[in-house]
Amino acid sequence: MSKKICMRSLVGVLAVASIFGVNAADLGHYAGGQCSNYRQSYLHQQPVDDIRQSVSANLSSAKVGMGDPRTLTNSRPAFVWAMEARWACSAALGYLNGGHVDEETVQKCDCFHQQYLAFR
To answer: What helix, strand, coil percent values describe the chain, rounded to 5?
Structure first.
């Protein structure tokens, strides 16, 4: 993604935040999503092709969610969880593309995506 598009996205998020207020995921106090139960995910124990398919689907869903106006204007932290899912799923997919199943990033991808879906 180009810097120009990233900057537009950031400006859009900040504009929406200033208009609608940011309650649940206050930008001034946010320190990163915590998914304390991510180790409960067993996605990493599935066959590699299933892991890759799930991680790719979660990544696509999170990317779509980050651009969805309903997510951007939601007072619940859906955008934050979509952003965290995008990060974790991208990392997990990177490991998978290198021939390694990184248990922690796969579990976080799964957990963060579930959080995103719960707040959407």
So the answer is: 70, 0, 30
**Using alpha carbons only, how large is the chain's radius of gyration in Å?**
15
Contacts of 72 (CB under 8 A, 6+ apart): 12, 13, 16, 79
DSSP state of 37: T
Distance CA 73, CA 108 (A): 25
Contacts of residue 59, defined as CB under 8 A and 6 or more positions apart, other chains included, come to 85, 86, 89, 90, 93, 109
pLDDT at 39: 66
Cβ atoms of 81 and 33 closer than 8 Å: yes
Tell me the pTM: 0.69
Q: CB neighbours of 90 closer than 8 A, spacing ≥ 6?
A: 59
Positions in the chain short of pLDDT 50: 1, 5-7, 10-32
* Distance set, CA 114 to CA 8, 28, 35, 44, 119 (Å): 27, 24, 10, 15, 9
